[in-house]
Design a protein that fits this description.
Elements lengths: L4 E6 L2 H16 L4 E6 L1 H10 L4 E7 L4 H4 L6 E8 L2 E7 L16 H4 L5 E3 L6 H12 L8 E3 L3 H14 L5 E5 L3 H4 L2 E3 L12 E7 L8 H9 L4 H12 L5 H13 L5
Parallel strand pairs: 1-2, 1-3, 6-7
Antiparallel strand pairs: 3-10, 4-10, 5-8, 5-9
Helix pairs in contact: 1-9, 1-10, 9-10
């Protein structure tokens, strides 16, 4: 009997949500699956050392290419699960005529109301690298803005608390992510192009693990396309509605087969 497929994902909830669909497909087709999760750089190191067989997923080319580069020769890119992109966003109650672009954060009227702390997630995330550079390149640091890394709870729960209180706040975020399912978050225009553009969230497999996966299952994974809206919905179902990632994935797969998935 073939050993279990070792499926890895970066330890953020939307990565878990999309990995849940990959796990559900593998298990539906008779494969045993074990899961590994780790921060960004560490997950790619696990892939390189052969401690995971599949990675769901690498954001290419902007966010994770530097992490995948040492392992390109031993890996194969499968399908694109969704197309993520990073934003700096503000709640929709912040008037657009006051804050439309990143540079507008320096206007006197905005400085009078906007929180100066821009709370992010872990330092290995692309959005964290991009955000730290933006604070410098737009001169926001000279006005007292500062980017801070932290946990998902620091970033996401902090944003929800700010919205509940009606505070003006900038959130460094991305699509797909569960907050977009609940809130209207307006992306700021960012003309310097420091947020990396749109990536392909690519399913990566080690070449030496490909024979462990049934050819028909491998073909399904190569063709798997979730889209940003589906990953946002799955992330919300897990984070806010209490489903397990696997239950949410199986439910979506059932609805997809019946033509009801969006």
């Amino acid at each position: 009997m073939s050993r279990p497929i070792r499926l890895g994902y970066i330890d953020l909830s939307f990565h878990a949500a999309s990995a849940g669909v990959v796990q559900a497909i593998l298990e539906r087709d008779g494969h045993a699956v074990t899961l590994r999760t780790a921060p960004h750089e560490a997950m790619f190191e696990l892939l390189g050392r052969g401690e995971v067989d599949l990675l769901a997923s690498a954001w290419l080319p902007a966010s994770h290419a530097r992490y995948l580069a040492p392992h390109e020769a031993i890996t194969q890119r499968l399908g694109v699960l969704y197309r993520p992109y990073c934003i700096w966003g503000v709640p929709d109650y912040v008037p657009e005529d006051a804050v439309r672009t990143v540079s507008d954060l320096l206007a006197d009227a905005v400085l009078a109301r906007m929180e100066r702390r821009i709370q992010g997630i872990n330092p290995g995330a692309g959005i964290s690298r991009f955000s730290a550079a933006m604070v410098r390149e737009y001169g926001l640091d000279r006005a007292g803005y500062h980017f801070e890394t932290g946990s998902e709870a620091d970033c996401f729960d902090g944003y929800e608390r700010a919205v509940a209180a009606g505070r003006w706040v900038v959130v460094p975020l991305w699509h797909p992510q569960y907050l977009h399912h609940r809130y209207r978050i307006r992306a700021l225009e960012e003309p310097k192009g420091l947020l990396g553009g749109m990536d392909d969230a690519t399913l990566i497999v080690r070449r030496d693990a490909m024979p462990l996966i049934r050819p028909d299952t491998l073909a399904i994974l190569q063709a798997l396309s979730l889209g940003n809206a589906t990953v946002t919905m799955l992330d919300h179902r897990v984070r806010k509605e209490g489903l397990s990632t696997l239950d949410a994935a199986r439910e979506w797969l059932r609805s997809a087969r019946s033509g009801e998935a969006g």
